[in-house]
Design brief:
By secondary structure, the chain is an alpha/beta fold. A hairpin with a 3-residue loop joins strand 1 and strand 2. The protein binds S-adenosylmethionine.
Length: 329
């Protein structure tokens, strides 16, 4: 695989067109250019203005490292063990191709590389140039003999520069609560992972049973992000094998799901046995106008007398009535 063949144009109207490498960057046939970050081979698809937030500052990676040390010490959790455990949930094997969104300075990369057992591709993206380039500086050379290819981009996780279904798994750790469009962040991961692949997303958020405890209130007082709730209602409606768990003393939610392009299996034409009768389809799509309560009671009694479900009786009575009216026309 060429270094850049998995990237595509993110400009509206370009339908994720293929990109060609040029000395300045990657260019689509409509002329949109995604330049390389100065002095690097890292394509820039989107970036944040300098000082936009704590991740867009000089020394952002060091500041983030300090924050991470505080987190793992506070929750008395071994960082390596946690990252390994979460990455194990991606089901990676030798040769897999995995995407990590909001990768920051790449703290997960050594663990992802190990999970690929000597072959595979890791696409590493973050919108903050300072964070992503710190990751390049820390890991590109260090992991170069691993047999795993690292592909870095400065891009927006809510508008990924990749075609559909090209990854075996996608992973996100610790940034999605602050994405401007969380639904898009999830749907983009779902879009680029192939059916059967796994998506794992984790970020700060107390388990609900801690919300009203002093333990929970102290944490939310310290950092309002602990009040975030897992964005379960934003998962794709085709998601399978969904799991919601918590890590870091139940203060960090982890959502896992298996990607599918197929609708969930549902036969809406299986008849209900019993008094009411009908099917999911007839009950939902076949609703009629109301009748007087007295007439409804008569209909129910008549259905029972004839040994029919209410739906069977109503349908047969209406069909008979329509047949009679056809004949009289
Ligand atoms: C708390 S840091 C986590 C970094 C890394 N995942 C880790 O475990 O150390 C959150 C990261 O999400 C990134 N981020 C925020 N919004 C983003 C977006 N729309 N697209 C890509 N990255 C984003 C930030 O720039 C930051 O590097």
């Amino acid at each position: 695989m060429s270094n850049y063949s998995s990237y595509c144009c993110t400009e509206p109207g370009c339908h994720r067109a293929h990109l060609n490498e040029s000395p300045e960057g990657l260019r689509c046939s409509n002329g949109h250019l995604f330049p390389f970050a100065s002095g690097t081979n890292v394509p820039v698809f989107a970036s944040e203005p300098e000082d936009a937030n704590e991740y867009a500052r000089v020394n952002a990676a060091e500041l983030h490292d300090n924050a991470l040390r505080w987190v793992f010490s506070t929750f008395e959790t071994d960082e390596a063990g946690l990252r390994e455990r979460l990455i194990a949930r991606l089901g990676l094997t030798k040769g897999s191709r995995v995407l990590i969104t909001g990768a920051g300075a790449g703290n997960d990369l050594p663990y992802l590389v190990r999970a690929l057992s000597g072959a595979g591709d890791i696409f590493v993206q973050d919108i903050a140039k300072e964070m992503l380039l710190a990751g390049v500086a820390r890991y590109q050379d260090e992991l170069s003999g691993s047999g795993v290819s690292l592909h870095f981009s400065i891009s927006d996780a809510t508008d990924l520069p990749f075609c559909d279904d090209i990854f075996d798994a996608a992973y996100h750790f610790g940034g999605i609560n602050l994405f401007p469009d969380i639904a898009k962040g999830i749907s983009e991961m779902n879009r680029v992972v192939r059916p059967g692949g796994i998506v794992v997303i984790g970020d700060e958020g107390l388990a609900p049973w801690l919300t009203n405890t002093e333990f929970g209130k102290m944490l939310v007082n310290n950092n309002p992000l602990y009040a975030c709730t897992p964005p379960m209602s934003l998962l794709p409606d085709t998601a399978r094998s969904v799991k919601l768990t918590w890590e870091l003393s139940n203060c960090f939610y982890v959502i896992e799901f298996c990607v599918s392009n197929d609708p969930l299996p549902l036969n809406i034409d299986i008849p209900h046995l019993g008094k009411r009768g009908g099917t999911i389809r007839s009950r939902y799509f076949g609703q009629l106008e109301g009748v007087t309560p007295a007439l409804r009671e008569r209909i129910y009694r008549e259905a029972e007398r004839r040994g029919l479900s209410r739906v069977e009786y109503i349908e047969s009575a209406l069909r008979d009535s329509l047949t009679n009216s056809d004949q009289s026309d």
